[in-house]
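Workshop exercise sheet. Pairs work together: one partner reads the sequence aloud, the other fills in the structure field after running the prediction. Swap roles for the next sheet.
Pair: D.N. / O.F.
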Amino acid sequence: MDLRRLEVFVAVARERNFTHAARQLHLSQSAVSQQIAALEVEIDAQLFDRSRRRVALTPAGVALVEWANRLLADGAAAQRAVTAAQGRMTGTLRIAASLTVATYLLPQPLAELARTYPEVRIFVRVENTEHVAIALHDGHADIGLVEGELNPEGLELEVLRHDELVVIAPFGHRFADDDEIEFAQLTAEPFVSRERGSGTRQVADAALRRAGYVPEQLRTIAELSGIEPIKAVVEAGLGIAIVSEVSIRRELQQQTLIARPVRGVVMRRELAAVFAARQPALPAARELVRLLRAHGRRPRPEGLVP
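Structure field:
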C-alpha cells in the first residue's frame, strides 16, 4: 500500500475537508482527489461519503484510518532511525514548543540551524506544555521544548537552562517602591493569568503552594492564552501578572513594565528539551539542543533583572 496515498487519506480524514487537507499537504485539491481515488481503487472500497457538506468517513474509512496512522508512524520511526544512525543533517525536523520558548528562546538558534543546514526542513508548532507532550507521544513531533512541569512517563527530558518567574506591573506602579512583594499585596490587586495547561501557570501555582499560599486567593479578572496579550493589558493598567523573566527584557529596557519577585517564593523552572523515550533523536534535533544551550550561556544584558 502506497504510504503517500495513506498520508493524503489521513490528512483528509483528519480535516474532513479536501481543500484544507490539500493546503496542509502543499498539494492541489485535484492531486488530493486523485490520490484518494487511486487508494479507493487499490483497496476496492469507498473511503469517504462526499454527499455531505463536510466529507465523512465511510465504515471502510473508519476501519482504515487507525491502521494508516500506525503504518505512517512506523514509517516515520524507521526513517528517523536510519537518519540518526547515519548522523545526517537532512530531512524534516518537527518541533513542538511551548509559547515562552518558541517566542523568546527559539528564534535565534533556529535561524542559525537553518543557515548552517539548509537541507533540513523545519516545522514548528506552538502549543502549551500539555499539548507538546501529546505531540511527542503521538509521534507528531521529533523534539519538544517546554518550560513547565511535565509528566516524564514515556518521555526523556534534557535541561537547557533555568528561568525565573516574576510579578509584572505597569511602570510607575506602587510595587516599584518595594524590592520584593508580599503575597498579601498580590491578593489586593486585579490579577491576569495564563490559561490552564500553560507551563507558566503550573510553575507559579506550585511555587505559591510550596510557600504556603493559596493561588486561588489571587483576584483573577482575566485568563489569556498568550504572553504578549498579558504584557499588553498589564501595560494598559488592567492588573498585574506573573510571567517569565526572559519574556519582558524589552519592556524593562523601555520602562513600560516593572518586575519584582514575591518574598519567600522561589518561582524557578527548568527550560527543557523533551524526546520520546526509546526513539533515537535526529541529528538536527541534537544540534538544535546544542545551539539552545549555547544561546542560554550568553550573559544577560545589564539592568534586566530587577
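Discussion prompt: The chain has a mean pLDDT of 86. What would you look at next?
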